[in-house]
Description:
The protein has helices at residues 3-16, 24-34, 39-52, 59-90, 97-102. It has 103 residues and is mainly α. Helix 1 runs parallel beside helix 3 (39-52) and helix 3 packs across helix 4 (59-90). The N and C termini lie far apart (53 Å).
Amino acid sequence: MTDKQAIYIKTFLEGAFPMLKESKESDLTYVVMLKEYDFETMFQATKNYIKKSVYVPTIAGLVKEYENVIEQNKRLAQQELLNIADRMEETGFFKTNEDFRKL
């Protein structure tokens, strides 16, 4: 994530949690600590955190929610693959064992 994106997330949090301090030091902390994360995923995690908690988040709290978003996305992708495989099976894409024995 870029510095600008990290500041965007912090500014978004300041809108939701007015008691969050606006300072150059805290801006620097957000930039340094969030730089290694994907912006879109972290922004989703930030929105999830705001919906779930009445407390100002820590960086650790945001990272935990980030990891939750990643796990949720993995589960959704796996489920979608299973759904695709089910539809393929229903349409007869997969051969039965008998068909393979004939080969």
